[in-house]
């Protein structure tokens, strides 16, 4: 029997991995990628596919080669590198996920803030007392690009942050399984709507950007600085542990080959879907407009909603953005929460406390994370800044560096050595991480 024949099990996992990757990251990728026009995005397409496929393949092998059929990434890291190193890796994993939760708190707040003023306010009667009150909550500011933008006065923004973040934390009291299922149900309609949106933008395409090519040094810099956001937007590593263990149980000795096959098709599917959306956005807006969207700190759909005179985009765009960011937030928060609990538990054990109070750990970790999310949403730091400076580079360390190091130092993984491909994955991982230095 040909165990590599494609079946429904493989299809389910391909769609699941695809759904894991497609989230709020795709709504911010065009803003970063479009800053240099059309041609840098073309180069990004050729770079990102091997980056995504080879790195996720290496991480899957990292899990598959661990002893037993129930050893996830953290257990595999402990088996390969020891308990102390595994605590450091757990810490890295937490700091790859939690800053993205913070970024999503900012994104959700700004999306709601923009929608209330630009789409909801005009629906109200001019003489309505509620309209007058709502309008009084906003002040008009000018961005660096000279665009006038309405933003809430500090007291009202604080109230909005408290309401939105608190609602999200209350939702977390429901069953994790229920929330995860709802998020999974949301993914595929959102993908369909984003694809329709990409098609809808085709009449808006401007082909003048075809004739604009940045100078070589600027071209390379644009592509290089976009790597963290690309890595983040295509990242489906949170599901790799579960995926790899499932494939290992299903295919046993052929698990590595089957995982490679599924990951290859997932990466190809992501490339076509995500980059079509990016190209459609890049051909519809100018670099100056992308800079303006970044200054406003809103997802690209909210920017289109404020720019295009179309009811579907004006009201549907922010709603899609809100749902996409919300579903991504829930997925990342569960990972961040479990990561925080795990780090504290491991530290307690390293300090000699083999039976720490798990309930107390949960209360303290959740409270600290809640307060940090409230403060961050209010301060309104750059969402892309979070992705570029924290999320993308740290994900690259876990996804690009850790598995390659294991392939070269762990005896049972040395059979996967490939100097050229390993050098490519490790090199692009390093390039992604060192983008942080560009700002200093």
Describe the structure.
The chain has 17 helices and two strands. The protein has 440 residues and is mainly alpha-helical. Strands 1-2 form a two-stranded antiparallel sheet. The termini are far apart.
* Secondary-structure class: mainly alpha
Oligomer: single chain
CA-based shape: globular
Mean residue pLDDT? 88
The topology string of helices and strands comes to: HHHHHHEEHHHHHHHHHHH
Unreliable sequence segments = none
Strand content: under 5%
The percent range for helix content is over 70%
Supply the number of helical segments. 17
- Count every beta strand, where a strand is a DSSP E run of 2 or more residues: 2
Largest sheet: 2 strands, antiparallel
Distance between the termini: 57 Å
Rg calc: 22 Å
Spatial ordering of strands, largest sheet: 1-2
Task: List the defining traits of the structure above.
440 residues, mainly alpha, 17 helices, 2 strands, single chain, two-stranded antiparallel ribbon
């Amino acid at each position: 029997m040909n165990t590599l024949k494609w079946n429904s099990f493989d299809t389910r996992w391909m769609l699941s991995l695809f759904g894991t990757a497609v989230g709020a990251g795709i709504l911010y990728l065009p803003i970063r990628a479009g800053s240099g026009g059309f041609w840098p995005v073309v180069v990004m397409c050729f770079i990102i596919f091997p980056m995504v496929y080879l790195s996720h393949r290496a991480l899957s092998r990292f899990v598959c080669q661990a002893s037993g059929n129930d050893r996830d990434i953290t257990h595999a890291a402990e088996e390969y590198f020891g308990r102390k190193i595994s605590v450091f890796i757990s810490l890295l994993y937490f700091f790859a996920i939690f800053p993205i939760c913070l970024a999503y708190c900012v994104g959700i707040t700004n999306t709601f803030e923009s929608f209330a003023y630009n789409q909801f306010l005009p629906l109200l009667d001019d003489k309505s007392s509620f309209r007058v009150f709502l309008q009084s909550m906003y002040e008009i500011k000018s961005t660096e690009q000279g665009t006038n933008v309405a933003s809430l006065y500090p007291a009202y923004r604080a109230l909005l942050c408290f309401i939105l973040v608190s609602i999200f934390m209350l939702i977390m009291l429901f069953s994790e399984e229920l929330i995860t299922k709802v998020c999974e149900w949301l993914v595929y309609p959102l993908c369909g709507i984003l694809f329709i949106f990409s098609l809808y933008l085709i009449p808006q395409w401007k082909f003048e950007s075809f004739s604009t090519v940045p100078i070589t040094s600027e071209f390379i810099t644009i592509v290089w600085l976009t790597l963290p956001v690309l890595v983040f937007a295509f990242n489906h590593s949170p599901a790799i542990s579960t995926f790899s263990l499932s494939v290992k149980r299903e295919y046993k000795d052929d698990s590595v080959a089957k995982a490679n096959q599924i990951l290859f098709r997932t990466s190809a599917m992501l490339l076509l879907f995500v980059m079509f959306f990016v190209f459609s956005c890049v051909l519809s807006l100018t670099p100056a407009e992308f800079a303006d969207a970044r200054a406003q700190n809103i997802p690209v759909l909210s920017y289109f909603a404020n720019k295009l005179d179309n009811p579907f985009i004006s009201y549907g765009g922010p709603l899609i953005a809100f749902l996409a960011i919300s579903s991504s937030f829930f997925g990342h928060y569960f990972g961040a929460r479990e990561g925080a609990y795990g780090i504290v538990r491991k530290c307690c054990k390293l300090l000699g406390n083999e039976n720490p109070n798990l309930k107390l750990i949960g209360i303290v970790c959740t409270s600290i994370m809640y307060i940090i999310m409230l403060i961050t949403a209010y301060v309104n730091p750059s969402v892309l800044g979070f992705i570029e400076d924290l999320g993308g580079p740290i994900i690259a360390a876990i996804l690009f560096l850790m598995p390659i190091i294991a392939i070269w130092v762990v005896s049972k993984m040395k059979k996967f050595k490939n100097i050229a491909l390993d050098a490519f994955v490790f090199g692009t991982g390093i390039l992604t991480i060192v983008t942080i230095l560009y700002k200093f």
